[in-house]
Structures are given as structure tokens and as C-alpha cells.
Amino acid sequence: MITEDKLKKVFSEALGIAYELVNDDLKYAELAEWDSVAHMALIAAIEEAFDIMMDAEDVIEMSNFSRAKQIVAKYL
Amino acid sequence: MTDRIAFVTGASRGIGLACARGLADDGYQLVLHSRTRASLDELLAKLPAACAAGSLLLNYDMTEQEAIGRAFQVIFKRFRRLDVLVNNAGVMEPAKLGMITHAALSRTLEVNLAAAILHLQGAAKLMARSGGGSIINISSIVGRYGFEGQVPYAASKAGLIGATLAAAKELAKQKIRVNAVAPGYIDTEINHQHSDEVHRLNLARVRMGRMGYPDEVAYLVRFLASGQAAYITGQIIGVDGGMSL
């Protein structure tokens, strides 16, 4: 799926982790690279890549990659 | 007209209307909020035709959190940017301490403080994407010094000063300036609800001996919005004819 692939690349680049590490099991704060500071950078990267602006509630809700896919899809 | 976008909440009357007119004169494209569509239509008639035609009109109740989120989505989709937010919408329900209802307290804090912070949050996000901006919170002399019969209003406006200071610190690195204006006794509808006695007492506190005009507040807002105020952030500035002295 193009969107999922694109989102994986954004996660990989924003968090500085291997593309292969980005999967549905990837969770906020379970990986050292995905801390609160990185989360804001990740949000900015996703918004830029998909030309969307997420609500604060969704920013907080985006606690794993699987949820991120659902949230981004909502804005497209 | 420039491509700069200014968002004024509570724009249909008083200080909000004066700010909308002034920012229109300064060449901004406007996003104008009011609670009802009817009051926005009246507002449009008071703006220069070119500005009115390009303005985005938003009507929602400040207590509706989801509506505030939708408003910023609409601004993003239409303009992709925001340069100025004038956080002006507010309510005041004067009552002695023993006569304050929980409903009035909640409404005042919700509209004057919580909604203002949610607008600040949405604006900061848009401004960060376009390289900075200016947020002007309309507080009040009542928030700085307190007035009898206005405990909820004073608390809400004092809270807005705290929010201004905290946000100014948090957003400076993103070139987003956050300031508050603290009007004194201004000739607006919100101040026409006082009794004659309260009116006389208020006026007696104003060293210049008269109510202020909404335009006199708007002049400061326009300055804070402009590049001339590029190095000013985290300030609470009174426009009160010496009422705070």
C-alpha cells in the first residue's frame, strides 16, 4: 500500500531507525529513538509529507505505527 | 492586500471588530469568527469590500472543542498558513461572590481561558509551519488587578496572562511571539451591562477621565501583529488611560 510505505519511510527517517523496524508493533516510548521530543519531530514530518494538519488529540493518540496509519488515513 | 493571514475571534463587535477593521487596513486577509452567522454577515458590511470578499467566516460556539479543531482544519485547507491570531472572544457575567453560579463560572473559564488556549494551540501549529507569527491575547485590567463583582472574569483573564507568558517561552524558538493586551474601561457592549453606580465607580478610576475606544486597543494589537514588534514577546501591555496607576 503506497500510503503505508510512505508512512514507514517517514517514520524511518524522522526517528532515525531502519525501515525494517517500522511495523505495527512499533510503539511510542518502547524504542529509545521514539521519545517525546522525537514524537513532535515525527508529527511534523508526517504532516509535511502528507500535507495535513493533525488535531492535538490525534497527536497524543498516535502511540504506535498501526494507530498512525488509521489517523493519517482519516485526513487523506 | 498581502498573503498574510490574520484570525480574529469574537470579531463581530467591540474590540474584535476594531481589530478586524484595522488588520484589514493593514492588508491582511482575514479569518473572522463569531458565534452566529448573522453577526458575521453584519460584520462583513463594516469591512472594505475587497477584504470582505476574501475573508473566511467561521461561526461556532467557543465551548465546542471540536468546532475549534475544525476551524483550524478549514484555515489550513484554505490558506495553508496563519500569521496573526487575535484571541479576543470572551464573556463577562458580573456577580458578587455569593451569587456566582457554577454554570456561569464554567462558561466564563471555558470561553475566556480554555477556548483561548485551544486557539493558541492551533495557531502555534500553523505558524510553526510557515516560519513564525504573532499571537495577541486580549486579557484585561481585571485579570491583572481584580475588580469586585468579577471573580470568574478576573480569574479567566489572569489565567490568560499566565498562558501568554508560558506560551511565549515555549514558542520563541519557533519565531512565534505571544503577547497580551490588557484593556481598561473600554466603550464596548460588554461594559454597557454595568449599573450606573458601577459605571461611575469605574470611570472614577480612570485617570484620563473617559472610557477608551475599541480602536485605541486595536492600534496596539496591530503594532504587536506587525514586524515592528518583531523583538517583543511575553509582554502584558495595558491600554487603560491610567486606570492601572
Description of the structure:
The complex is a heterodimer of chains A (76) and B (245). Chain A is built from four helices and no strands. The radius of gyration of chain A is 11 Å and the shape is globular. The longest helix of chain A has 15 residues, at 36-50. Chain A has a single domain (2-75), classed as Non-ribosomal Peptide Synthetase Peptidyl Carrier Protein, Chain A (Orthogonal Bundle), CATH 1.10.1200. Chain A is mainly alpha-helical and 76 residues long. Chain B is an alpha/beta fold and 245 residues long. Helix content of chain B is 48%, strand content 15%. Chain B has helices at 14-25, 37-44, 49-54, 65-79, 102-129, 141-145, 151-171, 196-205, 214-225; strands at residues 5-8, 29-34, 56-59, 84-87, 133-138, 176-183, 236-239. A seven-stranded parallel sheet of chain B has the order 3-2-1-4-5-6-7, with helices on both faces. In chain B, helix 4 (65-79) runs parallel beside helix 5 (102-129) and helix 5 packs parallel to helix 7 (151-171). Chain B is globular and about 50 Å long. The termini of chain B are far apart. At the A-B interface, helix 2 of A face helix 4 and helix 5 of B.
Topology:
The complex is a heterodimer of chains A (76) and B (245).
Chain A: H1 2-15, H2 36-50, H3 56-61, H4 65-75
Helix pairs in contact in A: 1-2, 1-4
Chain B: E1 5-8, H1 14-25, E2 29-34, H2 37-44, H3 49-54, E3 56-59, H4 65-79, E4 84-87, H5 102-129, E5 133-138, H6 141-145, H7 151-171, E6 176-183, H8 196-205, H9 214-225, E7 236-239
Parallel strand pairs in B: 1-2, 1-4, 2-3, 4-5, 5-6, 6-7
Helix pairs in contact in B: 1-9, 4-5, 5-7
Highlighted features:
heterodimer, A: 76 residues, mainly alpha, Non-ribosomal Peptide Synthetase Peptidyl Carrier Protein, Chain A, 4 helices, B: 245 residues, alpha/beta, Rossmann fold
